[in-house]
Amino acid sequence: MDRNVRILGAPTDYGANRRGVDMGPSAIRYGGLTSQLESAGVSVTDAGDLTVPHHATRDADAGAENAKHIQEVEEVCTALADAVSTSISDGETPLALGGDHSIAIGSMVGSARDADIGVVWFDAHGDFNTPETSPSGNVHGMPLAAALGIGDFAGVEWANAAGLKEENVAIVGLRDVDRNEAAAIRDTDVTAYTMSDIDERGITEVTQDALDVATSGTDGIHVSLDLDWLDPREAPGVGTPVRGGATYREAHAAMELVAKSDALRSLELVEVNPILDQHNETATLATELAASAFGKRIL
Prior knowledge:
Blueprint: E1 4-10, H1 24-30, H2 33-39, E2 43-49, H3 70-89, E3 93-98, H4 104-111, E4 117-122, H5 143-148, E5 164-174, H6 179-186, E6 191-194, H7 195-201, H8 203-215, E7 221-226, H9 248-261, E8 264-270, H10 281-293
Parallel strand pairs: 1-2, 1-3, 3-8, 4-5, 4-7, 5-6, 7-8
Helix pairs in contact: 1-10, 2-10, 3-4, 7-8, 8-9, 9-10
InterPro entries: Arginase, Ureohydrolase, Ureohydrolase_dom_sf, Ureohydrolase_Mn_BS
EC number: 3.5.3.1
Pathway: Nitrogen metabolism; urea cycle; L-ornithine and urea from L-arginine: step 1/1
Protein backbone atom coordinates (compact mmCIF):
# COMPACT_ATOMS: atom_id res chain seq x y z
CA MET A 1 0.00 0.00 0.00
CA ASP A 2 1.59 3.25 -1.18
CA ARG A 3 0.61 5.72 1.54
CA ASN A 4 2.00 8.63 3.46
CA VAL A 5 0.59 8.71 7.00
CA ARG A 6 0.52 11.83 9.15
CA ILE A 7 0.16 11.26 12.89
CA LEU A 8 -1.91 13.89 14.72
CA GLY A 9 -2.06 13.74 18.51
CA ALA A 10 -5.12 15.07 20.32
CA PRO A 11 -4.27 14.63 24.01
CA THR A 12 -7.59 15.52 25.62
CA ASP A 13 -9.70 13.99 28.37
CA TYR A 14 -12.42 16.62 28.45
CA GLY A 15 -15.01 14.34 26.89
CA ALA A 16 -14.42 11.47 29.33
CA ASN A 17 -15.37 10.72 32.89
CA ARG A 18 -11.94 9.44 34.01
CA ARG A 19 -8.58 11.16 33.98
CA GLY A 20 -5.56 9.75 32.16
CA VAL A 21 -6.81 9.24 28.62
CA ASP A 22 -5.08 12.47 27.59
CA MET A 23 -1.81 10.52 27.89
CA GLY A 24 -3.01 8.07 25.25
CA PRO A 25 -1.13 9.63 22.30
CA SER A 26 2.17 9.47 24.18
CA ALA A 27 1.55 5.87 25.22
CA ILE A 28 0.68 4.83 21.66
CA ARG A 29 3.82 6.47 20.30
CA TYR A 30 5.89 4.82 23.04
CA GLY A 31 4.32 1.50 22.05
CA GLY A 32 6.16 1.66 18.73
CA LEU A 33 3.61 3.27 16.42
CA THR A 34 6.06 4.60 13.84
CA SER A 35 7.94 1.32 13.48
CA GLN A 36 4.70 -0.64 13.23
CA LEU A 37 3.40 1.63 10.49
CA GLU A 38 6.68 1.47 8.61
CA SER A 39 6.52 -2.32 8.80
CA ALA A 40 3.20 -2.01 6.92
CA GLY A 41 5.06 -0.30 4.07
CA VAL A 42 3.88 3.27 4.63
CA SER A 43 5.93 6.40 5.16
CA VAL A 44 5.26 8.26 8.38
CA THR A 45 5.31 11.88 9.46
CA ASP A 46 4.56 12.67 13.08
CA ALA A 47 3.09 16.17 13.28
CA GLY A 48 3.11 16.10 17.08
CA ASP A 49 0.23 17.00 19.36
CA LEU A 50 -2.36 19.70 18.99
CA THR A 51 -2.29 22.38 21.65
CA VAL A 52 -5.23 21.64 23.91
CA PRO A 53 -6.69 23.77 26.70
CA HIS A 54 -5.79 22.78 30.24
CA HIS A 55 -6.87 24.12 33.58
CA ALA A 56 -6.49 22.91 37.13
CA THR A 57 -10.17 23.16 37.99
CA ARG A 58 -11.33 20.73 35.30
CA ASP A 59 -14.06 19.00 37.32
CA ALA A 60 -15.17 22.10 39.20
CA ASP A 61 -15.48 24.14 36.01
CA ALA A 62 -17.08 21.62 33.68
CA GLY A 63 -19.61 24.05 32.26
CA ALA A 64 -23.03 22.74 31.28
CA GLU A 65 -23.91 19.53 33.12
CA ASN A 66 -25.52 18.03 30.03
CA ALA A 67 -22.44 18.61 27.83
CA LYS A 68 -19.38 18.94 30.03
CA HIS A 69 -16.42 20.96 28.72
CA ILE A 70 -18.17 21.48 25.40
CA GLN A 71 -16.20 24.69 24.75
CA GLU A 72 -12.89 22.87 25.17
CA VAL A 73 -14.13 20.01 22.99
CA GLU A 74 -15.10 22.51 20.31
CA GLU A 75 -11.66 24.13 20.42
CA VAL A 76 -9.82 20.83 20.08
CA CYS A 77 -12.14 19.42 17.41
CA THR A 78 -11.99 22.58 15.31
CA ALA A 79 -8.19 22.43 15.31
CA LEU A 80 -8.19 18.70 14.57
CA ALA A 81 -10.66 19.11 11.70
CA ASP A 82 -8.33 21.63 10.09
CA ALA A 83 -5.31 19.35 10.59
CA VAL A 84 -7.12 16.31 9.15
CA SER A 85 -8.37 18.28 6.14
CA THR A 86 -4.90 19.69 5.48
CA SER A 87 -3.34 16.23 5.69
CA ILE A 88 -5.73 14.88 3.07
CA SER A 89 -5.18 17.91 0.82
CA ASP A 90 -1.43 17.25 1.09
CA GLY A 91 -1.91 13.67 -0.12
CA GLU A 92 -1.44 12.11 3.29
CA THR A 93 -3.69 9.84 5.35
CA PRO A 94 -4.31 11.34 8.79
CA LEU A 95 -4.04 9.07 11.83
CA ALA A 96 -5.49 10.84 14.85
CA LEU A 97 -4.49 9.65 18.32
CA GLY A 98 -6.82 10.26 21.24
CA GLY A 99 -7.51 11.26 23.81
CA ASP A 100 -11.13 10.49 24.47
CA HIS A 101 -13.60 9.72 21.72
CA SER A 102 -14.95 13.26 21.50
CA ILE A 103 -12.01 13.99 19.17
CA ALA A 104 -13.82 11.97 16.51
CA ILE A 105 -16.04 14.98 15.88
CA GLY A 106 -13.00 16.82 14.56
CA SER A 107 -11.72 13.82 12.62
CA MET A 108 -15.01 13.31 10.82
CA VAL A 109 -15.61 16.99 10.11
CA GLY A 110 -12.12 17.31 8.65
CA SER A 111 -12.34 14.10 6.63
CA ALA A 112 -15.76 15.06 5.26
CA ARG A 113 -14.68 18.54 4.20
CA ASP A 114 -15.21 18.77 0.43
CA ALA A 115 -15.90 15.02 0.19
CA ASP A 116 -18.60 12.43 0.75
CA ILE A 117 -17.39 9.93 3.30
CA GLY A 118 -18.58 6.82 5.09
CA VAL A 119 -17.75 5.86 8.66
CA VAL A 120 -17.05 2.50 10.26
CA TRP A 121 -17.24 2.81 14.03
CA PHE A 122 -15.62 -0.01 16.03
CA ASP A 123 -16.86 0.48 19.58
CA ALA A 124 -18.60 -1.17 22.51
CA HIS A 125 -20.74 1.94 22.79
CA GLY A 126 -23.01 3.72 20.33
CA ASP A 127 -21.71 7.23 21.06
CA PHE A 128 -25.09 8.41 19.82
CA ASN A 129 -26.23 10.41 22.84
CA THR A 130 -26.96 14.12 22.72
CA PRO A 131 -26.88 16.66 25.55
CA GLU A 132 -30.61 16.04 25.93
CA THR A 133 -30.35 12.24 26.26
CA SER A 134 -26.93 11.71 27.86
CA PRO A 135 -27.11 10.34 31.43
CA SER A 136 -23.61 11.60 32.20
CA GLY A 137 -23.07 14.72 30.09
CA ASN A 138 -19.74 13.31 28.87
CA VAL A 139 -19.18 14.31 25.26
CA HIS A 140 -17.18 11.16 24.43
CA GLY A 141 -20.61 9.49 24.29
CA MET A 142 -21.89 11.93 21.66
CA PRO A 143 -19.54 12.19 18.65
CA LEU A 144 -21.58 10.20 16.11
CA ALA A 145 -24.75 12.11 16.96
CA ALA A 146 -22.80 15.36 16.74
CA ALA A 147 -21.29 14.63 13.33
CA LEU A 148 -24.69 13.63 11.95
CA GLY A 149 -26.45 16.67 13.40
CA ILE A 150 -28.81 14.65 15.58
CA GLY A 151 -31.02 16.36 18.17
CA ASP A 152 -29.29 19.22 19.97
CA PHE A 153 -26.46 19.07 17.43
CA ALA A 154 -28.65 20.03 14.48
CA GLY A 155 -27.11 23.05 12.79
CA VAL A 156 -24.04 23.14 15.05
CA GLU A 157 -21.55 24.02 12.33
CA TRP A 158 -18.30 23.06 14.08
CA ALA A 159 -19.65 19.61 14.96
CA ASN A 160 -21.56 18.60 11.80
CA ALA A 161 -19.74 16.60 9.11
CA ALA A 162 -21.33 17.98 5.95
CA GLY A 163 -20.22 15.13 3.68
CA LEU A 164 -21.47 12.33 5.93
CA LYS A 165 -24.88 10.68 5.60
CA GLU A 166 -26.59 8.33 8.03
CA GLU A 167 -26.89 5.58 5.43
CA ASN A 168 -23.08 5.48 5.13
CA VAL A 169 -22.44 4.92 8.84
CA ALA A 170 -21.91 1.45 10.30
CA ILE A 171 -21.29 0.74 13.98
CA VAL A 172 -19.57 -2.59 14.71
CA GLY A 173 -19.50 -4.46 18.01
CA LEU A 174 -22.11 -2.76 20.19
CA ARG A 175 -22.66 -4.26 23.63
CA ASP A 176 -23.34 -1.33 25.99
CA VAL A 177 -25.95 1.14 24.72
CA ASP A 178 -28.17 3.49 26.72
CA ARG A 179 -31.92 3.04 26.23
CA ASN A 180 -32.56 6.46 24.67
CA GLU A 181 -29.41 6.09 22.59
CA ALA A 182 -30.61 2.75 21.20
CA ALA A 183 -33.92 4.34 20.25
CA ALA A 184 -32.11 7.18 18.50
CA ILE A 185 -30.00 4.75 16.47
CA ARG A 186 -33.10 2.80 15.42
CA ASP A 187 -34.74 6.04 14.27
CA THR A 188 -31.94 6.74 11.78
CA ASP A 189 -30.55 5.06 8.67
CA VAL A 190 -27.36 4.14 10.55
CA THR A 191 -26.49 0.43 10.37
CA ALA A 192 -25.56 -1.14 13.69
CA TYR A 193 -24.04 -4.55 14.41
CA THR A 194 -23.94 -5.88 17.96
CA MET A 195 -21.51 -8.40 19.40
CA SER A 196 -24.35 -10.91 19.03
CA ASP A 197 -24.22 -10.33 15.26
CA ILE A 198 -20.50 -11.04 15.35
CA ASP A 199 -21.13 -14.18 17.41
CA GLU A 200 -23.69 -15.43 14.91
CA ARG A 201 -22.10 -14.37 11.62
CA GLY A 202 -18.40 -13.95 12.34
CA ILE A 203 -16.21 -10.88 12.33
CA THR A 204 -15.24 -11.01 8.66
CA GLU A 205 -18.80 -11.12 7.32
CA VAL A 206 -19.99 -8.37 9.65
CA THR A 207 -17.00 -6.12 8.93
CA GLN A 208 -17.34 -6.61 5.18
CA ASP A 209 -21.02 -5.66 5.38
CA ALA A 210 -20.06 -2.56 7.38
CA LEU A 211 -17.46 -1.61 4.79
CA ASP A 212 -20.00 -2.05 2.02
CA VAL A 213 -22.33 0.36 3.86
CA ALA A 214 -19.57 2.93 4.36
CA THR A 215 -18.11 2.77 0.85
CA SER A 216 -21.39 2.87 -1.08
CA GLY A 217 -21.31 6.05 -3.16
CA THR A 218 -18.59 7.71 -1.06
CA ASP A 219 -15.11 9.07 -1.74
CA GLY A 220 -13.57 7.04 1.09
CA ILE A 221 -14.09 6.08 4.70
CA HIS A 222 -13.17 7.25 8.16
CA VAL A 223 -12.48 4.42 10.60
CA SER A 224 -12.85 5.11 14.30
CA LEU A 225 -11.31 2.47 16.57
CA ASP A 226 -12.15 2.75 20.24
CA LEU A 227 -9.92 0.32 22.10
CA ASP A 228 -12.81 -0.59 24.39
CA TRP A 229 -14.23 -2.41 21.35
CA LEU A 230 -11.91 -5.22 22.36
CA ASP A 231 -12.50 -7.42 25.37
CA PRO A 232 -10.85 -6.01 28.53
CA ARG A 233 -8.67 -9.13 28.71
CA GLU A 234 -7.10 -7.96 25.44
CA ALA A 235 -7.21 -4.21 26.11
CA PRO A 236 -7.31 -3.45 29.85
CA GLY A 237 -6.19 0.16 29.57
CA VAL A 238 -9.48 1.85 28.65
CA GLY A 239 -11.78 4.11 30.63
CA THR A 240 -15.07 2.29 30.03
CA PRO A 241 -14.34 -1.45 29.70
CA VAL A 242 -17.18 -3.84 28.91
CA ARG A 243 -16.81 -7.61 29.05
CA GLY A 244 -17.52 -9.69 25.96
CA GLY A 245 -15.68 -7.67 23.32
CA ALA A 246 -13.68 -8.53 20.24
CA THR A 247 -10.69 -10.83 20.54
CA TYR A 248 -7.17 -10.04 19.44
CA ARG A 249 -7.53 -12.00 16.20
CA GLU A 250 -11.02 -10.64 15.46
CA ALA A 251 -9.69 -7.10 15.78
CA HIS A 252 -6.80 -7.80 13.43
CA ALA A 253 -9.08 -9.53 10.93
CA ALA A 254 -11.35 -6.47 10.90
CA MET A 255 -8.43 -4.08 10.35
CA GLU A 256 -7.05 -6.31 7.59
CA LEU A 257 -10.38 -6.01 5.80
CA VAL A 258 -10.20 -2.22 6.20
CA ALA A 259 -6.84 -2.27 4.44
CA LYS A 260 -8.13 -4.62 1.75
CA SER A 261 -10.98 -2.22 0.96
CA ASP A 262 -8.42 0.39 -0.18
CA ALA A 263 -10.94 3.01 0.89
CA LEU A 264 -9.32 4.31 4.08
CA ARG A 265 -9.34 8.12 4.08
CA SER A 266 -8.68 8.74 7.78
CA LEU A 267 -8.24 6.70 10.95
CA GLU A 268 -8.28 7.34 14.67
CA LEU A 269 -7.27 5.37 17.75
CA VAL A 270 -8.97 6.53 20.94
CA GLU A 271 -9.63 5.88 24.62
CA VAL A 272 -6.25 4.37 25.53
CA ASN A 273 -5.72 5.18 29.22
CA PRO A 274 -2.17 4.28 30.31
CA ILE A 275 -3.03 4.84 33.99
CA LEU A 276 -5.34 1.83 33.77
CA ASP A 277 -3.13 -0.19 31.42
CA GLN A 278 -0.79 -3.08 32.19
CA HIS A 279 2.77 -2.72 30.84
CA ASN A 280 1.47 -0.44 28.03
CA GLU A 281 -0.32 -3.48 26.61
CA THR A 282 -3.34 -1.61 25.23
CA ALA A 283 -1.26 1.12 23.60
CA THR A 284 0.99 -1.47 21.97
CA LEU A 285 -2.05 -3.34 20.70
CA ALA A 286 -3.33 -0.08 19.21
CA THR A 287 -0.11 0.27 17.19
CA GLU A 288 -0.44 -3.28 15.86
CA LEU A 289 -4.04 -2.73 14.80
CA ALA A 290 -3.11 0.51 13.06
CA ALA A 291 -0.45 -1.38 11.11
CA SER A 292 -3.03 -3.97 10.04
CA ALA A 293 -5.39 -1.20 8.90
CA PHE A 294 -2.61 0.17 6.71
CA GLY A 295 -1.84 -3.17 5.13
CA LYS A 296 0.53 -5.16 7.34
CA ARG A 297 0.19 -8.91 6.71
CA ILE A 298 1.67 -12.07 8.18
CA LEU A 299 3.01 -13.11 4.77
